[in-house]
Amino acid sequence: MDSGRGAACCAPTFLGVPYRPLPSPTVALVFTPLTHAVALPSGESMLALLVAVSFAVQQPPPPPPDTSKRDSLPLKMDRTVSFETSEGTWLSLDVSPDGKTIVFELLGDLYTMPIAGGTATRITSGPGFDSQPRWSPDGKRIVFLSDRSGAENIWLCDPDGSQSKALTKGTNNLYASPDWTPDGN
C-alpha cells in the first residue's frame, strides 16, 4: 500500500521475485464451470463453486535478492493486506465420499463447504501455499500439497484442518495431484 490508495498482491516475494500489485484492494476472482470438473455422487459431472470469504494476504516490502537465505523458510509475515472476494477461479476441489461436503483451495488456503451451499470454512492458513486437496475414501482425512515447511511436500489433515502432518519431507521434490488408493492408503 505505497500510494495510500491500496494495492493487493497476487504472489509473495521470494528469492528476489517481486510482488505484482493489482489495481484495487478488492480482487474479483471468477470461477467458471469449465475451470474444474468433478464427478459428483449424484451423477452430475460439473460443479460451479461460488464462495464469500474474507482473506488476509501477506504483502511484506520486497527485500533485496539474497540467495544465502534460501533455507530460512518458512516465510515470516511482516504485514497484512485484507480484501474480500465472492468468486474464485482455477480451483482444485474434491467432494467428500458421503457427497455432503466440498474441500477446495483458494488463494493458497484450504476450505470446506456444504455441497448444498452455505458458508465456506477455512481449514488451513498461513504464509505457505496449500493446494490440490483430496478426501480419503472414509472421509476422515484430507491429503494436500503444501510448501509450509519451505519446500513443497505432501501433507495430511483432519477435515477441520487439525492434526496436520507432513507425509514427505523433501527439499527439491515435485509433487502433483495427491490421491488415495481405494483402501485408504
Protein described:
It is a single chain. This protein has 185 residues and is mainly β. The chain contains no helices and twelve strands. The protein has a domain at 94-166. It has strands spanning 8-9, 21-22, 53-58, 80-85, 93-95, 101-106, 109-114, 121-122, 130-135, 142-146, 153-157, 165-166. The strands form four sheets. The protein has a four-stranded antiparallel sheet, with no helix packed on it. Strand 11 (153-157) and strand 12 (165-166) form a beta hairpin. It is globular, with a radius of gyration of 17 Å.
Itemize the secondary structure elements and their pairings.
Blueprint: E1 8-9, E2 21-22, E3 53-58, E4 80-85, E5 93-95, E6 101-106, E7 109-114, E8 121-122, E9 130-135, E10 142-146, E11 153-157, E12 165-166
Antiparallel strand pairs: 1-2, 3-4, 5-6, 6-7, 7-8, 9-10, 10-11, 11-12
Helix count, DSSP H or I runs of 4 or more residues = 0
**Order of strands across the biggest sheet?**
5-6-7-8
Helical proportion? under 10%
The description of the largest β-sheet is: 4 strands, antiparallel
Backbone shape: globular
**Number of DSSP strands?**
12
Mean pLDDT: 71
- Run of helices and strands: EEEEEEEEEEEE
Poorly predicted ranges: 1-39, 44-60, 67-72
- Overall structural class, as computed from helix and strand content, comes to mainly beta
Q: Could you tell me the strand content as a percent range? A: 25-35%
Ends apart, CA distance between termini: 46 Å
Alpha carbon gyration radius = 17 Å
